[in-house]
Amino acid sequence: MTERERGGAGHPRRRGQGELEGQVLAVLRPAPGPVNAGWVQERLGGGLAYTTVITILTRLLAKGAVSRERAGRSFLWTATADEAGLAALRMRRVLDGEADRKAVLASFVTALPPGDERLLRELLAQAGDEAED
């Protein structure tokens, strides 16, 4: 492991916000069906504590990105969103927390690079066409 990966001074590199959530979803998406937290922990590797995996799964549940079903004294988990879906959930949560949605959306759109703005317009047009069908 390089000094950069360790985060310097021998400390593990600190993960970015949502990075673990994305990793958990990446493990859950191809799962053969609902799986327990131990299964997720095993496939994540990296020595994550079981309690950390449970915490991440619980956060994803609150965001609607996973579902769970009772299996004895524990739960089985299933991904209901991919990483793009998780990012969209985060964006909606931020938007829902603001009083002036129009101002937030206007600020967001005007800050987009031209290619992203064009893509957003195309996606909105597609969504409008699908709504009419």
From TrEMBL:
The keyword Methyltransferase does not apply. Signal peptide: none annotated. InterPro entries: BlaI_family, WH-like_DNA-bd_sf, WH_DNA-bd_sf. Keywords: DNA-binding, Transcription, Transcription regulation. Residues 1-20 are annotated as: Disordered. The keyword Cell membrane does not apply. Belongs to the BlaI transcriptional regulatory family. This is BlaI/MecI/CopY family transcriptional regulator. It comes from Streptomyces pyxinae.
